[in-house]
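User: We ran a pulldown and think these components assemble together. Before we commit to crystallization trials, I'd like a predicted model of the whole complex to look at. Sequences follow.
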Amino acid sequence: MEESLNSDVRSHTVGTTAVVYAGDYLNKLTGERIERECRKQLDSGCRALVIDFSDTELVNSIGISILLGIIDIAEKSGALVVFSDVKNETVQLFEMLGLTRHVILAKDEQEALSSLSTPPPQSQAIGH
Amino acid sequence: MEPNTQKLIHSFGALADLGQEIADTGDFIEMVRTSLHLLLGTLGIRRGAVVECPLHLETTNSLAVWGLGEDYQPRFIVEESDREAFLNLRQGALPINSSVESNEPAVAPFLSRHGEELRAQQIELVAPVIVRGRMTGLVVLGGKASGEPFTPEDIEVISAMVRHIGVGIYTHRLLAEVKQRAEENERLYQDLRAIYRDTVRAFAAAIDVKDTYTQGHSERVGKYSEIIARELGWGENEVEGIAIAGYLHDIGKLAVERKIINAPYKIDAKESIELNRHPAAGFDILSPIHHPYADIPLMAKYHHERLDGRGYPDGLTDTQIPIGAKIVSLADSFDAMTTDRPYKTRRSFDEVVHDLRRNTGKQFDVQVVAAFCRALLKELNGETKERKFLKMLGKDYLNAEKDAPLLRELLNELDPNTQAAAAAGT
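Assistant: Here's a predicted model for the assembly, 554 residues in total across the polymer chains.
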């Protein structure tokens, strides 16, 4: 496991999977940092992104737009995206706005990493 | 929470953020980019762009792009007829599909030019940006991440947000234009001021040419006045004004006969009356001019007034004399004392200090004399970078070791607190 030295966003890699932590409030500032980190990980060869929302209380519209952008970039790179440990209200928001059609949902980081070893079909939620 | 309630809260939050964003006077492109994000994130739209269509131009300018690929910059040709068509859409936005050309025939020319390109970029909706009844841009939007079609309610939300974005763009452009014009005006104003200053200095030189023995007098009085005003804490504009007043204080001498000004002897009473006309004559010359600084004519008129009422032309006393005239008066007298005149050589510095001590409160204002002494003392103590006094008085005139204590002593006498303390001690 490799910890990222990027002080703005906490992340680490497990094999070719990058785990990126979304922080407590996903807005423009934090969203752009996460996007940069995800781009960096994909550019360095990661084939899957786990975005962990365990600390995330709120996601605003800009955060949604940036997450859609990350999904787009990942799709173009042929990489999977898993959202882990998402709070119920945020899951409802993601469902309402269609994000869940493009990502895998996992109960926690561990489940997310396990799901990637035998990836289920996209848009199938695990643990929710 | 009910999905509709959650959707409403999410949209309201986005609208509030959008309002804040467009009110921000910071980076224009960042404002548009963030506004686009807010719009996309409100309805979960995967891609989009904001394109500016400047009035009277057919070519467009892409301001923000998201999800359309790094290299793609949407550019359209928008003719006047297209603008009219977009203004009269049945809904607030134009869906890009095959049936639209029959439903909205007015936009058919635009779609025939750009429909294919828009569909290739997976654009599903084009919303015109309308500000003050004019179409000023387009927002192009891809499909929703949910895969569902846009509902009429979605289009309402999009239209409302696009209106906000339009106002934001318009306001930022307007502010930028106002700022640019203000900068241009400021540059023109500064140019005019520079021309004015140069003209005034040329006048000052012309005044001094008339007086063989006092060449450079007006310029020096301007500089001494400037030093005093700055020491008194005046603002930059007022300091410039007093310098101008110093340059022009003797302009009335242009109306006095040259032989009186240059008389190599002490002039008689009649000649003195003639010479003493110069402050009032200066006022008459300067009054019709609209100066960019206040009270220049009055400073010229009253620079020979004294606090004790024995000055001229009007015999004013202390509070009746404008502070600017008091400054010019001291600057004028100091230069007269420290330059050679037709009938006497310049005084030594200790004689000058003696004269200042004797005449402060009678001829000169105490605060003005104190400011002058402080400024000179700072230069003697090496506290100032520029050596303004040294340049005007010559390098051999002042002696820091000898003259600084004289100034300190005079300052102590002038300072009311020191005087009070001294009085209390006796």
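Chain B touches chain A at residues 1, 3, 6-7, 10, 13-14, 17, 34, 36-47, 66-67, 144-148 (CB under 8 Å). That may be worth checking against your pulldown data before setting up trials.

User: Thanks, that helps.
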